[in-house]
Amino acid sequence: MRHENPGVREGCCRLLDHLVDTESMSQLIAMADDPDAKVRIAAFHALACDRCKSDTCAPGSDLVLEPALRHLGDDPEPKVRMRAAELVGKFAHTDVRAVAALEAAHTSDPSPSVRKVSGWYAPGGAIYWRTAPRDMDTGFMPRVGA
Predict the structure, then answer these.
(1) Average pLDDT of the residues of the chain
(2) Alpha carbon distance 64, 130 (integer Å)
(3) Does residue 84 share a domain with residue 106?
(4) Do residues 33 and 101 both lie within one domain?
(5) Which of 43, 59, 75 is the last residue in one of the domains?
(6) Longest CA pairwise span in the chain (Å)
(7) Angle, alpha carbons 101-71-78 (nearest 5°)
(8) Tally of CA atoms within 13 A in the half-sphere of 135 that contains its CB
(9) What are the pLDDT digits (tens) for 52-97?
(10) Which of 22, 39, 40, 138 has the CA that lies 20 to 30 A from 77?
């Protein structure tokens, strides 16, 4: 994870996408601030992707939301901001900061791709509705902060 070659660090992030555990999670989170954009992309993908992880390894907002919000708002690379939006989107149903950041990126990010992805995860977006928790009695989705 600290190798001088960014390709090696990127490969480590890709590997941790499948093998991360509670002991290695902090190293993966630290890679979100790597100086190389490809490493940051791989780190954010690994942190956001649930397909290869059990719920016990999924990082909570207390660990990953701040770096994701920071990179969504000001990372110089659009692909990093897109991956950060995916991670921020995981918390759009539970954190008003996530909603605000997604809506801001959806309306004002200079990259059309970042605006598109942010819109998917923001309230009203396709992924937002698909992942919404539902009230078992009414079938309705509760509002964030309610």
Answers:
(1) 89
(2) 22
(3) yes
(4) no
(5) 59
(6) 54
(7) 95
(8) 8
(9) 555 555 677 888 999 999 999 999 999 999 999 999 999 999 999 9
(10) 22
Asked if the model's pLDDT at residue 136 lies above 90, the reply is no
Residue 82: the pLDDT is: 98
For position 48, which CATH number holds?
1.25.10
Report the predicted TM-score, pTM, of the whole model to 2 decimal places.
0.86
Does residue 55 share a domain with residue 86?
Answer: no
Which tokens hold the place of 62? 């207390």
Q: Which helix (H) or strand (E) holds 44?
A: helix 37-48
Number of structural domains in the chain: 2
Same domain, 51 and 81: no
Non-local (6+) Cβ contacts of 6 within 8 A are 34, 35, 36, 38, 39
Q: Do 38 and 72 fall into the same domain?
A: no
| Cβ-based neighbours of 43, under 8 Å, separated by 6 or more | 13, 28, 29, 31, 32, 34
Give the integer Cα–Cα distance in Å for 135 and 68: 28
